[in-house]
Amino acid sequence: MSAIEIQVDTQYVEDDSRPAEHRYVFAYTITIANGSETPARLLNRHWIIADGNGDEHEVKGPGVVGEQPRLEPGQLFRYTSGAVLETEVGSMRGTYEFEDDTGALFDVPIPTFGLSRPNAVH
Question: Which domain holds residue 15?
């Protein structure tokens, strides 16, 4: 089962970034759409965040932005969070763990998406 769709939009946060200190801040907005015929609750997240040097950082935990949203069929959930990298480019990928109303657990992959300072990638 998984008719859960994930869409990602990213933004470089120039005001919070400090390139001279190797601090690059990115915001990402995730839209989760339940395209299935059954409700599902997002239980856990698992992120792998990579910087331009190939260093990876793993993040696991319950829910997203302090919530474990339940999505009815056809419902969307949108949230914005952020990541701080030591390089001006990087990427994120991961999975969300969901539970349906029968108690069945299933993972939904979050495809790799890029993070980059404007004009950093030609």
Answer: 4-116
